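// run 5 | inverse folding | seed 20
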C-alpha cells in the first residue's frame, strides 16, 4: 500500500514556502495600507493559506509583523555588507575603516527603509509596540556586522572595530529618530535632503574621535 506520508524534505520545503508566503503577504498588506492594520483572516487569504497555518508558524499577528521587519533588516544588512565589500580596501587604520563604513551607510537607501519601519513600529496602544523598537531593529545588526568587519580587517583590534561599528549603527538609529521627528517619515526630495544633512552631522560628530588615526 502506498504511503500518504509527506517526505521530511518535502514537508520542510512546504513549511518554508508557507512561512515566506505569510511574510510576503504581511509585507504586501503593510505597503498597501501604510501601517500593519489587517486581521489574521486577511493575512491568511492574501497568503493563500489557512488561519491555522498562520498560527502554526507564528504565535501572534504581532510576531508576524516583527518578523517581517527583521526580514527587511536582513536585506539592509546584506546591502551594507555588499557596499562595504565594494569599497576599496584602506590602509588598515581606523580612519580608513570609518570612511569605508560611512560610505556604505551613504550608499544604502536608508530613508525608504526607515520610513517603512516607522510605519510598522510606531507607537500603537493596541499592539504595545513603541518608537524605541526602531532603535532595537538597528541594534540587532551591530554584533554580526562587527564580527564580519573585524574578520576583514585583522590588523585592527576587534574591540575597536566593535566600538566603531556600534557608534555608527547607533548613530544611524539616532539620525532616524530625528529624521522622523522633522519629516514625519515622508519620502520626498526635501526629506532626503534632511536625511543627508543629519548623516553629515553624524559623521562629523563620530569622526572627531577617530581623526588621529594610527
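// decoded
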Amino acid at each position: 500500500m502506498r504511503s500518504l506520508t509527506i517526505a521530511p524534505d518535502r514537508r520542510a520545503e512546504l513549511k518554508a514556502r508557507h512561512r515566506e508566503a505569510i511574510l510576503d503577504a504581511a509585507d504586501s498588506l503593510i505597503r498597501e495600507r501604510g501601517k500593519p492594520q489587517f486581521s489574521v483572516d486577511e493575512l491568511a487569504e492574501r497568503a493563500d493559506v489557512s488561519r491555522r497555518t498562520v498560527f502554526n508558524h507564528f504565535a501572534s499577528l504581532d510576531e508576524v509583523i516583527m518578523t517581517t521587519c527583521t526580514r527587511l533588516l536582513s536585506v539592509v544588512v546584506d546591502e551594507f555588507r555588499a557596499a562595504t565589500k565594494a569599497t576599496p580596501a584602506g590602509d588598515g587604520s581606523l580612519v580608513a575603516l570609518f570612511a569605508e563604513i560611512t560610505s556604505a551607510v551613504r550608499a544604502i537607501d536608508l530613508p525608504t527603509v526607515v520610513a517603512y519601519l516607522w510605519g510598522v513600529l510606531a507607537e500603537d496602544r493596541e499592539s504595545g509596540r513603541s518608537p524605541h523598537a526602531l532603535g532595537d531593529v538597528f541594534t540587532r545588526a551591530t554584533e554580526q556586522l562587527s564580527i564580519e568587519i573585524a574578520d576583514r580587517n585583522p590588523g585592527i583590534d576587534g574591540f575597536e572595530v566593535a566600538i566603531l561599528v556600534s557608534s555608527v549603527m547607533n548613530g544611524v538609529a539616532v539620525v532616524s529618530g530625528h529624521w522622523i521627528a522633522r519629516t514625519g517619515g515622508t519620502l520626498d526630495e526635501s526629506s532626503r535632503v534632511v536625511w543627508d544633512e543629519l548623516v553629515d552631522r553624524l559623521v562629523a560628530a563620530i569622526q572627531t574621535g577617530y581623526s588621529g588615526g594610527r
